[in-house]
Amino acid sequence: MEVIITKDCMTASTAAAKTISKLIRDKPNAVLGLATGSTPLPLYSELIRMHREEGLDFSGVTTFNLDEYIGLARDHPQSYNYFMWENLLKHINIRTENVHIPDGTTDDVPGFCKRYEEEILLAGGIDLQILGIGSDGHIGFNEPGSSFASRTRIKTLTEQTVADNARFFDGDEQDVPRHCITMGIGTIMDARMNLLLAFGKNKSKAISATIEGPVSAMTPASILQHHRTVRIFIDEAAASELKRQHYYRWVYNGKPAWQQDV
Ligand SMILES: N[C@@H]1[C@@H](O)[C@H](O)[C@@H](COP(=O)(O)O)O[C@@H]1O
């Protein structure tokens, strides 16, 4: 695990965007795993800027989104499909046929999930998965208790996640769907690299449990301790409960210049 503590979310997002742009320049047909939520928004803005000003080319890139609410149409303003097109996809030169987002309106959820997994395999697997984290430690919508071996499937949100996400639904918890389709933890663990972003004090407990806690299904993100290549970008507030913050800073500051591209 590489833990990178930055002074604010913009610095972290710019650094994370550099990791992604390097991947795309080295491998123009890279497969990206995308996340929603407020956390990756500055990262997506930076990728859009890189596309416009530095010619970052997405024409060969394929994407798979982590999750989607069940019951929301693709054009519903709170659907993750709408979110992705508004905040990233319509601003870059990605091919529509290369974009994959779970379909929350499918009438065959198990069949859809099976095909989603097959499509990831057919694309060659995910090179880099972007992750946010829920305040309860979830990744994608894999809530506490999710199996570490899980694949794309239906899940029920926790009351905590419904409460957290109500802010996107005018604060009304009744409007937040209770079910979703999400990549499984096993799916996320198959990505060749995972890049997790977390900002703000309300993520500090989940972050300390993820990085320094025991690996436990009660903190789904803690399984990343078993992943080979994970970069965690956090701001000072999200890092505030880490016991070994001094060490993470010391490691990063001691890195040779050629490694400090992040
Ligand atoms: N399914 C998404 C997660 O992928 C995301 O990481 C989380 C955190 O959202 P935010 O970044 O807005 O805090 O929200 C949702 O539950």
Automatic annotation (TrEMBL):
Keywords: Allosteric enzyme, Carbohydrate metabolism, Hydrolase. This is Glucosamine-6-phosphate deaminase. Catalyzes the reversible isomerization-deamination of glucosamine 6-phosphate (GlcN6P) to form fructose 6-phosphate (Fru6P) and ammonium ion. One of its GO terms (molecular function) is glucosamine-6-phosphate deaminase activity. Pathway: Amino-sugar metabolism; N-acetylneuraminate degradation; D-fructose 6-phosphate from N-acetylneuraminate: step 5/5. The gene is nagB. NCBIfam families: nagB, PRK00443.1-4. It comes from Luteolibacter algae. The keyword Cell membrane does not apply. Coiled coil: none annotated. Pfam families: Glucosamine_iso. The record marks S146, R153, K155, T156 as: Part of the allosteric site. InterPro entries: Glc/Gal-6P_isomerase, Glucosamine6P_isomerase, Glucosamine6P_isomerase_CS, NagB/RpiA_transferase-like. Its EC number is 3.5.99.6. Belongs to the glucosamine/galactosamine-6-phosphate isomerase family. NagB subfamily. It catalyses: alpha-D-glucosamine 6-phosphate + H2O = beta-D-fructose 6-phosphate + NH4(+). The lineage of its organism: Bacteria, Pseudomonadati, Verrucomicrobiota, Verrucomicrobiia, Verrucomicrobiales. Residues 12-227 form the Glucosamine/galactosamine-6-phosphate isomerase domain. The active site is at D67, D136, H138, E143. The keyword RNA-binding does not apply. SUPFAM superfamilies: NagB/RpiA/CoA transferase-like. Allosterically activated by N-acetylglucosamine 6-phosphate (GlcNAc6P).
